[in-house]
Amino acid sequence: MAGKGRSRASGRPTLEQVAVEANVSRGTASRVVNGSLEVSPYALKAVRDAIRKLGYVPNHAARSLVTRRSDTVLLVVSESEDRVFSEPFFASIVRGLSQELSNTPLQLNLVMASTGRQHDRVEQLVRNGHVDGVMLISLHGDDPLPQNLVAAGAPVALIGRPPVPDATTVPYVDADNEAGARAATEYLYRQGRRRIATITGPRDMAAGLDRLSGYRAALRGKRGVTRLVAQGDFGQASGEAAMRELLGKDPELDAVFAASDPMAAGALRALRAAGRRVPDDVAVIGFDDSDLARNTNPLLTSVSQPTQLMGRKLAELLIAQLREPEAKLAPVILPTELVCRESA
């Protein structure tokens, strides 16, 4: 016997039939289909149940002509493919984003864009109306891309504080990088380490600058401490090379704070090759508390940042702008925590 809505065999179900099946108004059914959360939990469940029962598929092409929405958002990563797919930080961010966007009709597209030409292509996608909003990660220096996208009419949100102060008014999500680095370095000092080095991230990225500031703040005013700095790029090979450089400067150094877990893993490799025992001779701390930290030998002490939550908050910032284009959104700064394991 046929139910209140049309069966799949009698033609493509309509939104009106979904509303009848769910016993709600067409407007309420439309809000649920379009991803609005401004409906009651009862209506939300009823409409979703009706959609599943009838096999309703929204006509996005027709709807986009009316709403001028594509239901597509971009995550633009200003790094190479090798970096994006080899470092766990990015995967965790994407996981959080996907979780948050799963409650909406928005589809996420990932774009690696580390050159000017690639940035131009992203701007063209926005101008042509192919995307509704853009999220950016791994900005370097005074990158004009965020403001160019805003000028092109796109809602924009960032992971990471812009590296140049006041370079953009775009809302962003970040971890408290300076506090995390300070806690790691202070921990090494409290353990009696006095020849404490750091391997920094890139100096044209806010995370690199802030973690270096935290290291310096922790040792400010401390007497009898040797400070050593070498630069990396957050990647494992750069951490290994920087560790060799630091050992060349001071073979007796007894601690190192690396500004990422991959760099810390590289440092462990260089220390092992040099015959230095960790943590007996040299204590090592990383930053991220990624899966990598739980798979090194010895297990890596690391500063935990909530990367998956950062991804969710990034999506929230973008969704808020899609719902209210004139919204003024404050930065979201999430806390960090030192997780102690065998390496320190």
TrEMBL record:
<keyword id="KW-0238">DNA-binding</keyword>
<keyword id="KW-0805">Transcription regulation</keyword>
<protein>
    <submittedName>
        <fullName>LacI family transcriptional regulator</fullName>
    </submittedName>
</protein>
<dbReference type="InterPro" id="IPR028082">
    <property type="entry name" value="Peripla_BP_I"/>
</dbReference>
<dbReference type="Pfam" id="PF13377">
    <property type="entry name" value="Peripla_BP_3"/>
</dbReference>
<dbReference type="Pfam" id="PF00356">
    <property type="entry name" value="LacI"/>
</dbReference>
<dbReference type="GO" id="GO:0003700">
    <property type="term" value="F:DNA-binding transcription factor activity"/>
</dbReference>
<dbReference type="GO" id="GO:0000976">
    <property type="term" value="F:transcription cis-regulatory region binding"/>
</dbReference>
<dbReference type="InterPro" id="IPR000843">
    <property type="entry name" value="HTH_LacI"/>
</dbReference>
<keyword id="KW-0804">Transcription</keyword>
<dbReference type="InterPro" id="IPR046335">
    <property type="entry name" value="LacI/GalR-like_sensor"/>
</dbReference>
<dbReference type="InterPro" id="IPR010982">
    <property type="entry name" value="Lambda_DNA-bd_dom_sf"/>
</dbReference>
<feature type="domain" description="HTH lacI-type">
    <location>
        <begin position="13"/>
        <end position="67"/>
    </location>
</feature>
